[in-house]
């Protein structure tokens, strides 16, 4: 039977009038064989080749099973029983299944083929024919944190007749904008939230998502190129690298994407040159650590903690137990406030000589840090407490020491002696080699895909696209939980076109903050009803007096920033209060700065549910457990659990 021609077998089945008698136990075994077939990932994958989609595969198998069982000969039945539910049985049945599908499901296959062809994300370099018509020279400034990569690239940017700088954060774009203008190179600023056009400027500093792939430049700088591999935002770097029309493109980043950039350049036909950069002075590890006591902090220290709560606890403990005052930097602060805090810390003529920061300190700010002290080396990842990845530890530790500053030699250490070994291990680790970089479809691709599925709403279209799109081996489809969540929230909003929905999904909102989501829903509903969106928010009277008020300022700024973004994305009539939002955002950023300078309260969390409870100790601050201690405890717990 195994050697029979499957086409022949299929024909015999087709011709058969009805099945032969079989024992009940044999029938049951055959049913099991078909269940095994239906669950076979191999078969589902193979079926894609003849356009049986993953979601249709179970239905196709169900119908195939009925077809076989209705016509099964005693010989075939016994053969299937002898094989039993296993991979050999799947491989035996598959060619017969293929024949059956080709005859039975022509319509389904055709529509799936049409859908797939619209969700084709292969060969993304061909999406930018103008860039492909150019012979671009790509220079990769490759090295660790603080090795002068951006500095080198900006030298060429300055000299160019027309240049564009693309950075990962508004903060970095603002830094370049200020630096260039202060050096006499007229430069405009372009981010989702602001468009500052400087008269006669041929240079522009932008955030990566805003880069134009239509305009021609002499020099383009794409900073932090390793973020091509970022699970969520990677596609913006991939688009910039593939699509920017510049004679010379300077990439700055660590070595993790060097190999993949090499492969991409081989496909695009661009010339690649690599400049290896090294730190001016090596980073040194201080073996003594802070011996578990924050009283041992010194001027110029940056204490790094991985949650907002810990940051405020550390600040409070240091200010209570020492004569140092602390500046703070964390992700939820607006770029203006982060800069204000950085300047306060860098400036020697004040008492703010210690910085307490989250991983947000790893990128973008010019800081005069003598020593980076890790308060702990584990963080909550939304699910459980995990060790901070080595690449992140390296990037943060590398912020210590800065060429030309008071502290040219950088030091790093930990609060707890037990964590030191992990820090040293992280610093020793080579950069991982990235195998895939991010992609996400343009609106036009989603639109043409949606035309195949007129009955589906936007969230379903998006899910279908992600499920059926084809990608080359070098690319992955970017995670889009944020987009999904906003798309679902806006599903019932009337009056929005597909393009409006797509655009609203990229608005900078905090999906974990219900207030922020509420305002986005309100803005989209007003837009759908063609009513000008109001800001509808009072200005706080003064700086925050407690953590609740501080959180409120953070949210207010975030909502204003979202309004500004929408006012640039959509028409003036729909979001007419951009100027007012800008003024309010500036005032709130100032208030945030003032509040942080005064802050001496216990922190609250936006949503504390499910997070590990901190432990108290007699000094009035919650010392973290070392990574090793937590690990040992976890192991002991596991063992105990296993014994129960
Ligand atoms: N050749 C140089 N002359 C003077 N200052 C320099 C030089 N190279 C770098 N610097 C200074 O050293 C600091 C670090 O440089 P830069 O920001 O370019 O490093 P980087 O490798 O891009 O770091 P990161 O990985 O953090 O982006 C900056 O303050 C920069 O101004
Ligand atoms: Mg840099």
From TrEMBL:
Region (Disordered): 598-644
EC number annotated for this UniProt entry: 3.6.4.13
Coiled-coil ranges from the UniProt annotation: none
Keyword annotations: ATP-binding, Glycoprotein, Helicase, Hydrolase, Mitochondrion, Mitochondrion nucleoid, Nucleotide-binding, Nucleus, Transit peptide
Gene3D superfamilies: 1.20.272.40, 1.20.58.1080, P-loop containing nucleotide triphosphate hydrolases
GO molecular function (one): RNA helicase activity
Bias-annotated ranges (Basic and acidic residues): 615-638
Entries under Pfam families matching the protein: DExH18_N (PF23703), DEXQc_Suv3 (PF22527), Helicase_C (PF00271), SUV3_C (PF12513), Suv3_C_1 (PF18147)
Reaction catalysis annotation: ATP + H2O = ADP + phosphate + H(+)
Chief location bin: mitochondrion
Domain Helicase ATP-binding: 130-242
Keyword Plastid listed: no
Enzyme class (EC, first level): hydrolase
Superkingdom of origin: Eukaryota
Cofactor(s), by name: Mg(2+); Mn(2+)
GO CC entries: mitochondrial degradosome; mitochondrial nucleoid; nucleus
Cellular location(s): Mitochondrion matrix, Mitochondrion nucleoid; Nucleus
Entry-linked InterPro entries: DExH18_N (IPR056377), DEXQc_SUV3 (IPR055206), Helicase_ATP-bd (IPR014001), Helicase_C-like (IPR001650), P-loop_NTPase (IPR027417), RNA-DNA_Helicase (IPR050699), SUV3_C (IPR022192), Suv3_C_1 (IPR041082)
SMART domains reported for this sequence: HELICc (SM00490)
Signal peptide annotation: none
A single BP term in Gene Ontology: mitochondrial RNA 3'-end processing
Occurrences of domain Helicase C-terminal (ranges): 289-442
Family: Belongs to the DExH box helicase family. Belongs to the helicase family.
Assembly and interaction partners: Homodimer; in free form. Component of the mitochondrial degradosome (mtEXO) complex which is a heteropentamer containing 2 copies of SUPV3L1 and 3 copies of PNPT1.
Protein name per its UniProtKB record: ATP-dependent RNA helicase SUV3L, mitochondrial
Organism: Linum tenue
Lineage: Eukaryota, Viridiplantae, Streptophyta, Embryophyta, Tracheophyta
């Amino acid at each position: 039977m195994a050697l029979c021609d499957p086409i022949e077998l299929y024909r015999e089945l087709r011709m058969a009038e009805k099945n032969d008698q079989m024992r009940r136990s044999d029938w049951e075994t055959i049913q099991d064989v078909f269940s095994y077939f239906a669950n076979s990932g191999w078969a589902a994958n193979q079926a894609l080749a003849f356009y049986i989609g993953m979601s249709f595969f179970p239905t196709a198998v169900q119908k195939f099973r009925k077809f076989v069982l209705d016509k099964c000969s005693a010989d075939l039945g016994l053969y299937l029983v002898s094989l039993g539910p296993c991979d050999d049985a799947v491989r035996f049945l598959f060619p017969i299944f293929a024949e059956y599908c080709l005859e039975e499901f022509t319509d389904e296959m055709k529509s799936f083929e049409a859908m797939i062809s619209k969700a084709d994300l292969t060969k993304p370099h061909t999406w930018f024919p103008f860039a492909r018509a150019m012979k671009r020279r790509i220079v990769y400034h490759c090295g660790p944190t603080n090795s002068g990569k951006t500095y080198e690239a900006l030298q060429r940017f300055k000299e160019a007749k027309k240049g564009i700088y693309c950075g990962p954060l508004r903060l970095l774009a603002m830094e370049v904008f200020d630096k260039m203008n202060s050096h006499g190179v007229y430069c405009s600023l372009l981010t989702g939230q602001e468009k500052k056009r400087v008269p006669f400027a041929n240079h522009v500093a932008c955030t990566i998502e805003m880069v134009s792939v239509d305009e021609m430049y002499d020099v383009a700088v794409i900073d932090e190129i390793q973020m091509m591999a970022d699970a969520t935002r990677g596609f913006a770097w991939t688009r910039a690298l593939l699509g920017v029309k510049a004679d010379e493109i300077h990439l700055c980043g660590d070595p993790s994407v060097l190999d993949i950039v090499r492969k991409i350049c081989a496909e695009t036909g661009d010339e690649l040159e690599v400049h290896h950069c090294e730190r001016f002075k090596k980073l040194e590890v201080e073996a003594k650590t802070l011996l578990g006591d924050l009283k041992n902090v010194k001027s110029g220290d940056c204490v790094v903690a991985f949650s907002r709560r810990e940051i405020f606890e550390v600040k409070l403990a240091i200010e209570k137990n020492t004569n140092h005052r602390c500046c703070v930097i964390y992700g939820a602060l607006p770029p203006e406030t982060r800069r204000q805090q950085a300047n306060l810390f860098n400036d020697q003529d004040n008492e703010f000589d210690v910085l307490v920061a989250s991983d947000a300190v790893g990128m973008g700010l010019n800081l005069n840090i003598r020593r980076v002290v890790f308060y702990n080396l584990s963080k909550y990842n939304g699910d459980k407490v995990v060790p901070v990845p080595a690449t992140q530890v390296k990037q943060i530790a590398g912020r210590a020491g800065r060429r030309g500053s008071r502290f040219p030699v950088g030091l790093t250490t930990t609060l707890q002696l037990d964590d030191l070994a992990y820090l040293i291990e992280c610093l020793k680790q080579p950069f991982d080699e990235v195998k895939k970089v991010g992609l996400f479809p343009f609106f036009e691709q989603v639109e043409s895909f949606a035309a195949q599925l007129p009955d589906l709403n936007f969230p379903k279209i998006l899910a279908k696209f992600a499920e059926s799109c084809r990608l080359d081996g070098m690319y992955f489809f970017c995670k889009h939980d944020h987009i999904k969540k906003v798309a679902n929230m806006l599903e019932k909003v009337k009056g929005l076109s597909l393009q409006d929905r797509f655009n609203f999904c990229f608005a900078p909102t905090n999906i974990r903050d219900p207030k922020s989501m509420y305002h986005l829903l309100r803005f989209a509903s007003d837009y759908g009803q063609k009513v000008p969106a109001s800001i509808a928010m009072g200005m706080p009277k003064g700086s925050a007096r407690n953590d609740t008020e501080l959180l409120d300022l953070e949210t207010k700024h975030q909502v204003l920033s979202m309004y500004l973004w929408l006012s640039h994305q959509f028409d003036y009539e729909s979001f007419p209060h951009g100027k007012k939002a800008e003024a309010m955002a500036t005032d709130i950023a100032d208030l945030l700065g003032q509040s942080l300078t005064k802050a001496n309260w216990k922190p609250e969390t936006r949503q504390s549910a499910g997070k590990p409870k901190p432990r108290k100790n007699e000094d009035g601050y919650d010392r973290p457990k070392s990574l090793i201690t937590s690990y040992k405890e976890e192991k002991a717990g596991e063992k105990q659990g296993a014994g129960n």
